Fold this protein.
Amino acid sequence: MAINDKWGKVYEELGAKPVINATGSVTLLGGSTPVKEVREAMELADSSYVLLAELEQYAGDRISELLSVPAAYITSGAGSALTLASAAFMTGDSDENIEKLPDTEGMPNEILIQKRQRYWYDRCMEFSGARLVEVGNENNTSVVDFEKMISEKTAAIHVPVYEQKPTDENVLSLETIIDLAKKHNIPISVDSAGQIYPLENLGKYVRMGADFQCVAAKYMGAPHSTGFALGTKEIISRIAKNSFVGYETNRIRGIGRPHKIDRQEIVGVVTAVERWMTLNHEDRLANFEYMTNNIIKDIDKKNGIITQKIDNVIGHQPFGLYIDIDENVSNINPQILVEKLKQSSPSIWTRIEEGDSKICIMVFGLELGQEKIVSQAINEIMKENLR
Ligand SMILES: *Cc1c(COP(=O)(O)O)cnc(C)c1O
């Protein structure tokens, strides 16, 4: 059912406007809708209380087995995993250090990152008290640039990976970073939050030699507020000590205390990972491609719309399309169309990616059938704005 009487009602009753999400998994709209298997498992988890330290241990063991890495830890999102890992790189096993953060005096507190790789979520690392230190410049980074910056203050080197995007030849590859870091005995941190497909990428960076990689469970049918860390036994045990579970279990007051996660969510994440590893991904992808093709087919090209199909299947958001407008035919430009779609009823969210001029439509957040509402709304707006 694409939209029925109950659609969005609970939000409307509060005064908030429900949204058809044609923009993908974005936190500003709520990020994910947990799948049925996950919701059912979470409901079963209501039945009793459980010692969270024990649950985290067994849940982490299960995930680490499924993903062929030494250890795993469930967190309140990939962002939390980044903060806790940064803390873990600095504190080591020292309870005293854990209680001292975010004051990092006496600890290595610099996380090196290539200047060209600065990104939206790197801020999550600084919440631990760590300092991000840029290496290289806007154009490139060399091994020598790194060697100049590495010192006893270096806590880790951080690398975000986006395998769905074209390779940036002007940054050092993860392989090069791993070699370099190993040579200097520095931990390697990888943000692979969106690298959930192909399946081998779940844990791949740890198997390549990274100490830590994070994954956002929001992309695989778990609650938006969940994620996990994968890594060596050493770093995962330090993440556990810095976490809210460590705070209550060990009575060591670390910075992880506000990063709480429910026992239901922990069970939900395990269920989501189990499902993901056994899911028929060809069917999953076919479903996204089907909705994409429907939008392209149903958009009336006479109104000045130019569509371009996205055929990427790597990472968290397969398929989708770009939309451009022929301004010889239409009075409106892509920015205005995005606004008009937001204001239409029901409200439809699409977006123009930073530095781009085309509208990007993602089908990740659409229920089957909602894609028809999107193409109809576009047709109606465009028909009213012909030159
Ligand atoms: C979503 C995302 C994050 C943050 O993950 P949360 O689970 O929302 O905290 C970090 N890095 C990347 C690349 C992401 O896509």
About this structure: Residues 244 and 260 are 6 Å apart (CA to CA).
